[in-house]
Amino acid sequence: MSSKSSSIESVLTENRSFPPPEAFAKAARVGSLAEYEGLYARAERDPEGFWAEQAAELAWARPWSQVLEWKLPDARWFVGGALNASVSCVDRHAASWRKNKAAILFEGEPGDTRVITYGQLHREVCRAANALTALGIRAGDFVAIYLPMIPEAAIAMLACARIGAPHTIVFGGFSSEALADRIGDCKAKAVITADGGWRRGAIVPLKDNVDHALAGTTVEHVIVVERCKNQVAWTSRDRWWHDVVDTASPAHEPVAFDSEHPLFSLYTSGTTGKPKGILHTTGGYLTCAAYTTKLVFDLRDDDVFWCTADIGWVTGHSYVVYGPLANGATVMMYEGAPNAPRTRAFTSGRDPGAGLDRFWDVIERWGVTVFYTAPTAIRAFMKWGDQHPAAHDLSSLRLLGSVGEPINPEAWMWYRKEIGGDRCPIVDTWWQTETGSIMISPLPGATPTKPGSATRPLPGISIDIVNKDGVPVGPNQGGFLVITRPWPSMLRTIYGDHERFRTTYFGEIEGCYFAGDGARRDADGYIWIMGRVDDVINVAGHRLSTMEVESALVSHPKVAEAAVVGRPDDLKGQAIVAFVTPRSGFIGDDALAKELREHVAKHIGALARPEEIRFADALPKTRSGKIMRRLLREVASGSTARGDTTTLEDQGVLEKLAQSFAHDD
Q: Are the C-beta atoms of residues 374 and 429 closer than 8 Å to each other?
């Protein structure tokens, strides 16, 4: 087992020594099902009053005159109110007893570490804000951030918020083409990047990608963090972070912005292949990010909160930066891959198991108490073997979370047993880039859980399951998952295309927000996410959820991961094609394929038996860990039209699958 270093232990001991602040003392912890139902009912009776209470937890420079102005599909929240997001996340804590409390604990992939207190964070954010202002960045100017998971990423976000410059973060693994698309769409005036970032021992050439992306754009300045010390090209528009930020004044007077002032845009892939710039505004987004962080994770002042998402995704926005920091929490940031050893000596001769315990090592050494990660990662941990978490002391953990896609019951049970030791509740959360914050989740200690179910909507969120005509369906009947009433962190538009916003999210089910997920509600009122409605296969007139077939496949002890899609079939309409990754030690062959077909038939029925099973070492996933089933459908049907693939983590995985199909034709 590893042990905490003395410096880390001293930081954590100091964190625990602070007295609980009044803000946490008055925070409503929901401790029973009756309390949850009472709070939910109160929010249903008076939604505007409920959300006003949550918004009041932030630092407002000017009170609002109206809680909500709603003209479907357009919402304005906390009308007339003014605030600055960085003040709620940094200034008020730096001016309190939290000044010397750790705000960010950082570990780089090579093993370097940093601890940044709220007092230090305040000074760094002020310096960055002054540097941006000196370069001519003004309120309303977009700034693109293209950084690895290092503290400068959070500092850059908060500095942009401080001066009213909306940020658009592009995940550091995206290509120069994807970066160019996003910079061009929002007309960014500046880019903040790094010379490189560490990923599985290799340097991701971030600055080189920026240089290739900027031709013909509106970018005037590029600020570069020196991270990997790799050689980069230099032009007159380039500035080193340490030259312009580290030398700037640590004092900066924040300006209050209207509650509806844009805070950020974040691009998500569209079905047409054209990314959508999801725009969120300051007051409403920050209200929900702070509220859900505190409620869902039962946040306490001695917690070390680790959301493993990159800030290039909305999860990282809400639950690495804005939500936890608004609550004065200590957040963990880790730079690299979950299977990277804590050394720069990455060689082909290394023990193949080296680094497969990296996350558990981080949890043990830093004393992580709340761990929030993706089902895809959990299934990867299962595949790597139980011995890796078993070698570490994970007793600091008190709460586990799941995010990104529905978690299959088998992964849920493994997570609970092997990581939580049956002592940690699991919060399995449903939300989207567009919702800005968690919408459906169990509350620890209050909502009894069911493996694989997101359970019930949070207080203040109105969810229903309806048919295509908008009529609610009965228990255990599949339908469209809709949100029937506005909520503060809802997206305001697709940047530059409001009509696309209206038709995409409010054009399918009259009077409701709908973004493509199907679900069912069981007899206890628990919601089960069935996956995208376009992830439903129509076999001989019978609609089958791909999620149900995938869950059946993954329940087999020889399967680590599975993705199911439909392909055109002259007889059945659609045939089921399954892509399966076997668990370590098992071979994907005809015998296993036959075994899996019968396993699915036994669990669901003969109609669900896959027509074809393809074995693969890996499945095509986005950088946030979601399986790209759209691309698998194209591979299964023989199509060569790939659409937008910029979100893929590894293009080689898709190419290998496509070649496999081509060779069999």
A: no
